[in-house]
Design goal:
Length: about 575
């Protein structure tokens, strides 16, 4: 997602800032959280229905009309599937707050008795069994009052807002609750269709930028307009609506790979100067990613950004931006950069299950310090990494090893929550220092593109798991580093480095959860020289003069338990709870 890294960087832990965010005033007029969601609809990535496992999702043609004045929508979804096993019942996910009025299968209308949707799993009895290997089309008409986000993007839904001039300003954010808040889909990460066509009808004077390639606008006789788009390989939670009296800035980026990439920014009227300043960041940010990671994955569509009344979200090729053009001492808009990072780490590389959420957010968060290093050098990089360090909570492992829905991972009481951002970034920082840049970035490219020599046209979007990424790291590092990930990803507590000095030696010992092996070397500064201590069997030792000043890990290359960070977080918690100093 999507909780952007700037919320975790500066002064407090992730938990504290999430709590602060929950008390912020809503940016929209509709009642947050209404109408309420069923338990099924509220869970994105919940276990599939057995009938859904018998399907391949081929494509979707989605038509929406948006009614801002009454905060409602109407939709017609044409969904194309291929049965992978004989199929008697079609099951898709759709919020019951959007009642279905008609369904047809391959053009044949079904009686209303053929479907039911009490909890958000729309079950459709097919007129005849569809054999394995056969393609078919379901057309579903529906309308209603969609769920309003409590605090987008953390708790998603529709955002009904107004521009400063009082015009409608509508946005959506669905990552945590899923695509079924807008359209009938299979709300599971690996059920992306090959393409989605979008047709969005809006009132007069409004536009509707969306995912993919613009296919034209039809002006209707009564002043309404229908905006059409074609998106290939979209993430299902990334299909989005954006409606406002937008103004557009556009340009073309000449890629270092020889292709051209269209760039577009849709912003509110009256913000031209700030919008152009942000648009000026698009090309250098693209250059960073293409030079350090690899080709922009959706160059044949666009780099798109749209101003929204919520903070942000990685809506593929139309990233939501609501950061109010904030300036930072790091010299670039970190929210824009973070969301754009997700084009690689969420939209090109998509987690196969939400248990692998950190592959989106850990990488997405690491890209800001990495960009700082690319722009200004090691000092900026390290300062940004150290700012991220203060937000790591270590209450739950980043990866459980079991399938999870998005909300479970994101809740601090049951999952790693903000640690998938800041801790994930620090795991990558430590890994990079351990195996070196060549092995690190080649492993990243294998995870993102499936190859170390990506070029436009020689890769496709991929689903990835944490074990797959570990395998790529082992391959490129030339050794088995499972021990590294066992401690950092599959345990909650950080490794502690115990140290003692006696008889002219510094003795070090890694203390790990469940006494896991952890032979991570440690740099030590002794006076004015830096030595590396090998930690075989979790232990190491080095000669140190009695009067020498010693600094452990002087360049902060290792994620480990820190008394000072722990004390700082406890201080912040006391202040928040009214405990004074």
């Amino acid at each position: 997602m999507t909780i952007r890294t700037d919320l975790f960087r500066r002064t407090a832990s992730a938990a504290l800032l999430l709590l602060l965010a929950s008390t912020a005033p809503a940016a929209y007029a509709a009642d947050p959280g209404q109408p309420p969601l069923t338990e099924q609809t509220a869970r994105s990535g919940a276990p599939l229905d057995p009938a859904q496992e018998k399907l391949r999702f081929d494509s979707a043609d989605l038509s929406f009309e948006v009614f801002p004045e009454r905060e409602s929508i109407a939709g017609v979804a044409k969904l194309r599937f291929t049965a992978t096993d004989p199929l008697e019942t079609l099951v898709v996910d759709l919020d019951p707050n959007l009642p279905v009025s008609a369904i047809s299968i391959d053009g044949t209308p079904l009686p209303e008795s053929a479907w039911e949707n009490p909890e958000g799993r729309l079950s459709i009895r097919l007129p005849a069994t569809i054999p394995a290997g056969r393609a078919f089309e379901a057309t579903i008409a529906y309308a209603g009052t969609p769920h309003v986000a409590v605090r987008a993007p953390w708790e998603g839904g529709f955002v009904w807002s107004q521009t400063p001039e009082g015009k409608p300003w509508v946005a959506t954010a669905f990552q945590m609750q899923g695509c079924d808040l807008l359209w009938p889909c299979i709300d599971y990460p690996t059920y992306e269709p090959d393409f989605v066509d979008l047709h969005i009808t809006v009132p007069e004077g409004l536009s509707a930028p969306a995912n993919g390639v613009f296919r034209g606008v039809e002006r209707l006789a009564d002043g309404r307009s229908t905006w059409s788009w074609h998106a290939t390989d979209p993430t299902i939670y990334g299909i989005t609506l954006n409606v406002a009296p937008y103004e557009e800035i556009s340009g073309t980026y000449a890629s270092r790979f020889g292709n051209s990439i269209p760039m577009h920014f849709w912003h509110l009227p009256g913000r031209d100067e700030r919008a152009r300043e942000l648009f000026a960041e698009f090309a250098p940010t693209l250059d960073f990613f293409e030079s350090v990671i690899g080709p922009y994955p959706f160059a044949d569509q666009k780099l798109g950004v749209v101003e929204t009344p919520h903070l942000g979200m990685e809506h593929q090729t139309i990233n939501a931006y609501g950061n109010e053009y904030k300036k930072t001492p790091d010299g670039f808009d970190e929210l824009f950069q973070h969301e754009f990072a997700h084009e690689w780490f969420a939209n090109q590389l998509t987690a196969a299950n939400w248990d692998d959420f950190w592959l989106h957010e850990g990488f997405g968060s690491y890209m800001q310090p990495l960009y700082g290093q690319w722009r200004e050098g090691d000092g900026r990089y390290l300062s940004m990494m150290l700012a991220l360090r203060n937000g790591i909570r270590n209450q739950h492992p980043i990866v459980s090893g079991e399938p999870q829905d998005a909300g479970h991972v994101y809740r601090g009481d049951s999952g790693p929550s903000g640690d998938i951002y800041s801790k994930g970034a620090w795991v990558l920082h430590t890994l990079r220092n351990l195996i070196g840049d060549e092995a690190f970035f080649d492993a990243v490219r294998l995870a993102v593109y499936g190859r170390t020599d990506p070029r436009p046209g020689n890769f496709e979007p991929l689903y990835r798991t944490t074990p797959e990424f570990i395998g790529f790291v082992n391959q490129e590092a030339g050794r088995d580093l499972q021990w590294f990930f066992d401690v950092y990803l599959y345990e909650a507590a950080l490794p502690e480095l115990e140290q003692s000095r006696e008889n002219g030696r510094l003795n070090l010992r890694w203390k790990t959860p469940n006494d896991r092996p952890f032979p991570l070397p440690v740099e030590v500064r002794i006076g004015d020289r830096v030595e590396t201590v090998v930690m075989e069997g979790n232990r190491g030792s080095i000669a140190v003069p009695e009067d020498a000043h010693v600094v452990i890990d002087p360049m902060s290359k290792i994620l480990m338990q820190s008394d000072s960070v722990d004390a700082y977080q406890q201080y912040l918690l006391r202040r928040m709870r009214g405990g004074g100093h």
